[in-house]
Amino acid sequence: MSVVAGIDSSTQSTKVLLVDTDDGTVVGTGRAAHTVTGTNGARESDPGQWWSALVTAFNAAVAQAGVRSVAALAIGGQQHGLVVVDDAGVPLRPALLWNDTRSAPQAEKLTAELGAGEWAARTGTVPVASITVTKWAWLRAHEPAVAAAARGVRLPHDHLTTRLTGVPVTDRGDASGTGWYSTSSGRYDADILDLPDVRLDAGLLPRVVPCGEPVGTVSAAAAREMPAASGALVAAGTGDNMAAALGLGLDAAAAPRNRTPALSLGTSGTVYTASPTRTADPTGIVAGFCDAADGYLPLACTLNCTEAIDRVASWLRLDREAVEPGGEVVLLPFLDGERTPNLPSATGTVTGLRHTTTPGQILRAAYEGAVYTLLTGLDAINAAAGEAAQPDAPLVVVGGGAQGPAWRDTVARLSGRPLLIPNNTELVALGAAAQATALLTAERPAHPAQRWHTTEGTYVERVPRDDATRARIAAALAAQ
């Protein structure tokens, strides 16, 4: 038996799973929290706490499992964040996170400069405030001395992998969310890096490691803090969405009928599918990411998902499950602006209130507003990939919200599709473990999770689609 470590460094915490490579059994777990700061659109974290959390969670998992060493490890990290470091790899300022919306003006300016169609054709994405290139442009405009002092520009998972190995590397999956990596050429785009508001030296960026190539081994410095990782092989890691896709065993090489879409209900909401087809959506709804192997992961993302609904429930002084049917209220829970649709300055809106409206109906409307925007993203993904929707095929629903009855009911009712809710909940860490396992076994990165049967779980039967509610939400969105 070999044991690998899969690491999920997310917005709010780090989770580590120690996994038996033979059958996917989780033999040890660890977790440590992060702090996010900022108001009025700012969202920042100290990268030093990510490393401390990784060390704490890793050592806790090792102690629980009672193992002496791990054979390999990989990191799945929150996408898009901007980490700028000095010559020694020390961050020059807190990281700008994916949900920091201060760079919305830079996103608009960059999009206008090249045109949405050109951005999509080059990078697969149209800049919005979450994309890394807009955050770098914001830093140059607002903190030029910090930008000028940068000797390395990293994504969160890049930064942690570099701390593990001493080698500045990334993978094509996470790189495809930066806005300066060309999904068509497989290289950093020199023309984008040379734009007046960007002016970024490609030498400051990490090398993009091909799929299946180990980065190296855990350095002596890192092993002093994590002795059980000494000498372990390190995979390139990837972005959290790409890692979750690996954790579900989604493989772009699979036949179309087996390419099941996944809908993730977390702090943000995402919907994605593995595809052999590169997408370039000039509307910006679909981000045409690469996956963590040799395919693509077209994805739509909303900023406001479980956290927004929990906030609405707290305002109403209700339990999050206290939804009630009836009424005609529509609630668009855009409490942090929004990415899909691209409304970075939007606020939450409620329409259709009556004297007879109950708090439970308002809460139900919040769920519906969040789910509807994700489902329109799935429609856009199918259109961008040129694939017909498969209404009888199940949606795989993951993330913290997947465990909630109100979330499940809303997704089933507004999609009109059956649902599959896997028993496994730490899919990003499982996907990182699968990537680490593939280094040892020479499998395709998604194949370990397939033989581990990670999608086994609860099946929710199909119900008739609630077209009346969908129509009300569509009308409210059109008025934005």
What's the topology here?
Layout: E1 3-9, E2 13-20, E3 26-33, E4 44-45, H1 47-65, E5 72-77, E6 83-85, E7 95-96, H2 104-114, H3 116-123, H4 132-142, H5 144-149, E8 152-154, H6 156-165, E9 169-170, H7 172-175, E10 181-182, E11 187-188, H8 190-193, E12 207-208, E13 216-217, H9 220-225, E14 233-234, E15 238-239, H10 240-247, E16 262-265, E17 269-272, E18 287-290, E19 296-302, H11 306-316, E20 330-332, E21 349-351, H12 359-385, E22 395-398, H13 405-415, E23 419-422, H14 427-441, H15 447-452, E24 457-460, H16 467-478
Parallel strand pairs: 1-5, 5-14, 5-15, 9-12, 16-22, 22-23
Antiparallel strand pairs: 1-2, 2-3, 4-7, 6-8, 10-11, 13-14, 16-17, 17-19, 18-19, 20-21, 23-24
Helix pairs in contact: 2-4, 10-14, 11-12, 12-13
Average residue pLDDT: 93
Approximate strand percentage: 15-25%
Overall helicity = 25-40%
Low-confidence stretches: none
Shape: globular
The main pleated sheet reads as: 7 strands, mixed
Computed CA radius of gyration, to the nearest angstrom: 21 Å
CATH topology of the domain at 3-239: Nucleotidyltransferase, domain 5
The CATH homologous superfamily of the domain at 3-239 is named ATPase, nucleotide binding domain
